[in-house]
């Protein structure tokens, strides 16, 4: 049996990985292992490991690592704790191959630890650029410690190769979250409203905003500007918030969200985690996705849903014509919101093509995970297109 260990530390990444995890579990010759870590194990962020268990997965190891602070010091110490915890987990599980997605600090700990165990790593969503967050550097570091690469666009495949990765180990497969939509039965509006206890009437916005971690303590200022812009839209606008991740300077944003909801109890609601099904289902019915989450650039365009992308967190990522970028000021956000909600822009969003969309993403990943030779995979050679 080839032991495939999937590592997940956040609600969003788990929602993307869950269908692949099911396929691994159901495939003859493969054994699924699951490690849950970071926000999944935190009461402050909703103890979302329970969602993994409710979905029928067995969690083989839980790696506690998240300190209850969002300073740079706490984040760095969390990475250290994670590195120790993953070392213990790998000693017990002895996986043949790790699967990680994205660029969060807990994955830096997971992959750094795996390096010393000589465990090959399969990385999803490498080669992307998000200049506003330290996730950008983490993503490239994970690429250099990974051995199989699954990119969401051809441009990102070329970038991973430019980082020195062997071309025959880099696969353009598309964004797995979009492929998941083809196999997911989304909720009807009435079903979703009942689940949320919140009506998606009139103009409803889905808002997710994370700190721009390469900037110095701008999160509160930028999010306050966003809230002021929402206030300026008037009482008829309804807001569905998902709370930020455990990033540096993220916790003050949670308090601001709670205060906003307390002031607007009839027209706003907030969740630590909607879960993948409710989050994606909501994109069908909201007027726009607002904030700086990657989901506004990757998944929302497939719903032909306008996106208002604020600030520099996603700077450098490819974007569809349905995405409006704006500065993180009240005036700029307000102007972008009015554009996104205009009839003319809704037509544009309906006509937009999603650059991350590709057929059979999960099948391609699964087939490679199952069949790619593991012998010698952990030994890497630098690929130099311009040799000396």
Give structural notes.
The structure is a single chain. With 388 residues, this protein is α/β, with parallel strands linked by helices. It has helices at 11-26, 49-54, 72-93, 105-117, 135-144, 154-162, 176-181, 189-196, 219-231, 251-263, 275-283, 295-298, 330-340, 343-351, 361-371, and strands at residues 2-8, 30-37, 61-63, 97-101, 121-124, 148-151, 170-172, 203-208, 237-242, 268-271, 288-291, 307-310, 323-326. α1 crosses α15, α4 (105-117) packs parallel to α5 and α9 (219-231) runs parallel beside α10. It is globular and about 60 Å long. The model has no long low-confidence stretch (mean pLDDT 94).
**Contiguous uncertain segments of 5+ residues:** none
Main beta sheet: strand number and arrangement? 7 strands, parallel
**H and E string:** EHEHEHEHEHEHEHHEHEHEHEHEEHHH
Q: Biggest sheet: strands side by side, in what order?
A: 3-2-1-4-5-6-7
Terminal-residue CA separation: 42 Å
Measured on Cα atoms, how large is the radius of gyration?
20 Å
Roughly what fraction of the amino acids lie in strands? Answer: 15-25%
Instruction: Please give the count of helices.
Output: 15
Please provide the count of β strands.
13
Mean pLDDT: 94
Global structural class: alpha/beta
Shape: globular
Helix content: 40-55%
């Amino acid at each position: 049996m080839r032991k495939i260990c999937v590592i997940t530390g956040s609600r969003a990444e788990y929602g993307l990985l869950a269908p692949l995890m099911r396929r691994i579990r159901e495939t003859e010759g493969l054994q699924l292992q699951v490690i849950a870590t970071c926000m999944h194990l935190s009461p402050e962020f909703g103890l979302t490991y329970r969602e993994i268990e409710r979905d029928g997965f067995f969690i083989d190891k839980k790696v506690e690592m998240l300190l209850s602070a969002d300073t740079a010091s706490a984040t760095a110490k969390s990475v250290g704790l994670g590195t120790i915890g993953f070392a213990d987990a790998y000693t017990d599980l002895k996986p043949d191959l790790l699967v990680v997605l994205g660029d969060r600090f807990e994955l830096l700990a997971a992959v750094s630890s795996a390096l010393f165990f000589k465990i090959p790593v399969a990385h999803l969503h490498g080669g992307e650029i998000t200049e506003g967050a330290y996730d950008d550097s983490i993503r490239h570091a994970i690429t250099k410690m990974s051995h199989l690469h699954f990119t969401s666009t051809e441009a990102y495949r070329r970038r991973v190769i430019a980082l020195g990765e062997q071309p025959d180990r880099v696969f353009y497969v598309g964004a797995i979250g979009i492929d998941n939509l083809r196999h997911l039965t989304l909720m009807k509006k009435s079903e979703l409203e009942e689940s949320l206890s919140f009506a998606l009437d009139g103009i409803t916005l889905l808002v997710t905003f994370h700190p721009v971690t390469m900037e110095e303590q701008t999160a509160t200022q930028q999010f306050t500007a966003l809230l002021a812009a929402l206030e300026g839209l008037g009482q008829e606008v309804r807001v569905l918030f998902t709370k930020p991740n455990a990033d540096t300077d993220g916790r003050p944003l949670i308090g601001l969200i709670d205060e906003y909801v307390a002031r607007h109890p009839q027209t706003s609601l907030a969740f630590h985690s909607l879960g993948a099904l409710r989050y994606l289902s909501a994109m069908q019915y909201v007027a726009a996705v607002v904030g700086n989450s990657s989901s506004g650039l990757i998944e929302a365009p497939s719903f032909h849903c306008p996106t208002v992308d604020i600030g520099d967190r996603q700077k450098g990522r490819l974007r569809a014509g349905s995405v409006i970028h704006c500065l993180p000021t009240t005036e700029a956000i307000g102007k972008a919101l009015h554009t996104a909600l205009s009839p003319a822009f809704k037509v544009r969003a309906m006509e937009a093509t999603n650059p991350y969309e590709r057929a059979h993403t999960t099948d391609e990943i699964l087939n490679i995970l199952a069949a790619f030779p593991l012998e010698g995979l952990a030994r890497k050679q630098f690929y130099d297109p311009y040799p000396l």
